[in-house]
Amino acid sequence: MATTPESELLDASLKLLKAIDAGDWKTYAEFCDENITCFEPEANGHLVVGLPFHKFYFDLPSSGSPRLSSATSPSVRVIGDVGIVCYARLVQKLDASGDPVTVTADETRIWHKVGGKWKHIHFHRSPA
Description:
Structural class: alpha+beta
CATH class: Alpha Beta
Helix content: 25-40%
């Protein structure tokens, strides 16, 4: 079965989430443009530019707690060399008491195809 730009983008987005869950900075950074921009809750309403803001979170000590992200109801749209991936992200993890919880966020990720490879250039994440 031939891959489509839509399937490539969804696969890249899922691999990105897996890298985030695993605390795998190397893989995360490979997917991202060095000047990636974002709006996310951790930025308190400010536009963040570049990778250093994100690396801070990857450098924090791991809790050792398992974490699994799922992208539900994904929507993928390709416009030329730009792709937009939207989904509700469910993150399963343990709370401070060790009880399993699921938190939800709505995410939009923008990708740009450069030299035949998709690069993550912007995202917006809002708590659901």
